[in-house]
UniProtKB/TrEMBL annotation:
It comes from Bifidobacterium polysaccharolyticum. Residues 1-139 form the N-acetyltransferase domain. Keywords: Acyltransferase, Transferase. Pfam families: Acetyltransf_1. This is GNAT family N-acetyltransferase.
Length: 139
């Protein structure tokens, strides 16, 4: 659901994507509508997490829904799948970073049970950006 304006192409270079797809502690989920890819989510556990929240946590690193498919429940479905996977692995927490200026995504995650618990900065191209860290307990 994140949108930082135009993302640098390097974030999706073939080499980086291949590396991420081969990471055993990462899972990619794709949602399609009528056979058309509409949304995807990347989940990380263990050392694949971009910040180390421990072995009982899962990170939603990426959740994107194409604009033509927003507000159709795809994001909710994918986040619910993340909670189900976390429960099946006996994990206690799911966390994510959401851009400080992405209020629609923040509201979405709050509605899904996430609370702001911190923040971190990162570089996007040449700009320093701030993400809110949001976490939710796995019940």
């Amino acid at each position: 659901m994140g949108e930082h304006g135009r993302l640098p192409p390097a974030l999706f270079s073939p080499e980086l994507v291949k590396s991420q797809l081969s990471e055993p502690e990462s899972v990619f989920m794709l949602a399609s509508v009528g056979g058309t890819p509409a949304a995807y989510m990347q989940l990380n556990t263990g050392k694949a997490q971009t910040e180390q929240f421990g072995d009982t946590s899962m990170e939603i690193e990426r959740l994107y829904v194409l604009s033509d498919f927003k507000r159709q429940g795809l994001g909710t479905m994918l986040v619910n799948q993340a909670f189900e996977r976390a429960r099946n692995r006996n994990l206690s927490k799911i966390w994510l970073g959401v851009w400080e200026r992405n209020e629609p995504a923040q509201r979405f995650y709050q509605a899904m049970g996430f609370k702001r618990t911190g923040e971190h900065t990162f570089t996007l191209g040449t700009d320093i950006q701030t993400d809110w860290i949001m976490t939710a307990a796995v019940n």
